[in-house]
Amino acid sequence: MMPAHETYDVIVIGAGAGGMTAAAVAATEGLRVLVIEKTAFVGGTTAWSDGMVWIPANPKMKEAGLSDSITDAVRYLSSTVPEPTNAGLRAAFLARGPEAVAWLEANTEVRLQPVKAYPDHYPELLGARSGRVLEPVVFDGTRLGAHFARLRAPMPELTIFRGMMVDRRDILHLRGAGKSLRPTLRAARLLSGYALQRLRSPRGTTLHLGNALAARLYASLLTRRVEILFSADVEDLSVQGDGVRGVVIRHGARDRWIAARRGVVVATGGFSHDATLRKRFFPPAAGFVSATNTSATGDGLRLATAVGAALNVDATSPAYWVPVSLFRRADGSRGVFPHTITERAKPGVIAVNAAGRRFVNEALSYHEFVLAMLRDGSGEPDRPFYLVCDRQFLWTYGLGRIKPFTRNLRRYVAKGELIEAPDIAQLAAKTGIKPSVLAATIASYNSDAKEGRDPEFGRGSTLYQRHLGDISHKPNPCVAPILGAPFFALRIYPADLGTAIGMKVDAQARVLRQDGTPIAGLYACGNDMGSIMNGNQPAPGIMLGPALTFGYIAGRHLAEGVAAATSPTKVSV
């Protein structure tokens, strides 16, 4: 073994939400921390995400006057995550999640607020609640100073005016601009503020959603003088005796061994972009499309399994899913637009399969929607699916990356991204669907949609579905007929939002061997850690909630100074 070039108390591999949380906690507790990031930016997939954090019975709910209890959360999870696998980790998450929120708010720059009206995905089940999901409070990116350039930018398609982020509440003001005084004034303030920001920055500095969460965690690291090594690859974990004592990295043209007195936290984001692992764990119908950051290539799993880490492969689904549409940006790069909550549940659009028939309730969660795609796909990796709507829908709600009130659709049609036709028969012909089948599908849907009903799938029948619809549309916020030419189709694909298969850990976030004993000095969080929900998605934010919680747990446990000294003991998983 080469001599150590440097020594830290803690080394964190990966600068996503989980890794930055672990680093911030350990540094706040007085430890010297190094974060190693393989890319040139912090934030990972978190910086692209909606930033939702699901933690039941959290203190922010109580402050907002929302009732909840761990008992109710246990009841809800018993229905939505019925498998016994990881039951102990779910218990640890429920017990320590509220503690993590309170600690982070008291000791770091992280600030969260409840999305009061956002329900769990299955609100009809016992123990379900609204408001369990938290979102990051808006953050001023100028507070990062020159380091703002190191924060991964949001997906361009989730901004307006080429770089302006908008709070979900302000979308309504922008839509109402010019129609009444209040939204017009609010829109004017937003736009003038953005114009001033662009004088000083290449993009807007008022940050929302996952970009705000990543920025707040990054600010926490900078304030605590945590060192971040960018564009560095970790080649091996250094094992001495019975535990992990550091890492071997390639930075530039040379290898370096960096020692860790207390431990290493692996948080590299899962394996969404590793073709070998996708082929091993994903169903064939899933294909190779991902909505995650391209740096999630399974580095953490390979490093940890090389030193004896066990993988938790007992998952109902190997990943969390979202339907996406694909396109080419002006610079030639491929764009992936996730259809999470923007338009699928709105009134006046349906999803059809390759045969031209509806196959799903379009207002279900994005995870359930893709599970229906995978079932319908019959194992075919390139089976086409489409969202179908008319001009009025597209104008009012948008479709994929096409924003509402877009007048000129020619560039989307010319690129083949959006399919347009003057009638349903020609639309079907352009998509390869039998015209009589698509016409019959739309006619059947329309016959009941005129009255706001969907007897085939019950769209708009739950609080969650209605929340995603248009509350101003009566009688059903999720259902309206498709009537006015021209008509449009947008192809959608199954994609993952993050992997559910990962390393086995214990309630202290320590990585486990196959026999259930912890590997001293090795921790995991985020998508490198096997999902505590086993591939089920009971609510939004079930990746970021556990990522923050177990990042917090790892940081606190490392700070206690027992990680390297404790002899391995058998634990149940």
Give a description of the structure:
With 573 residues, the chain is α+β, with helices and mostly antiparallel strands. It has 3 domains: 1-164 and 204-318 and 500-566, FAD/NAD(P)-binding domain (3-Layer(bba) Sandwich), CATH 3.50.50; 166-201; 320-496, Succinate dehydrogenase/fumarate reductase flavoprotein, catalytic domain (Flavocytochrome C3, Chain A, domain 1), CATH 3.90.700.10. 31% of the residues lie in helices and 20% in strands. The protein contains 16 helices and 21 strands. The strands form 5 sheets. Strands 1, 2, 8, 9, 10, 11, 20 and 21 form an 8-stranded mixed β-sheet that branches. Strands 13, 14, 15, 16, 17 and 18 form a 6-stranded antiparallel β-sheet that branches. Strands 3-5-4 form a 3-stranded antiparallel β-sheet. The longest helix has 21 residues, at 87-107. The radius of gyration is 24 Å and the shape is globular. It starts with 5 loop residues before the first strand and ends in a 14-residue tail after the last helix. Residues 562-573 have low confidence and may be disordered.
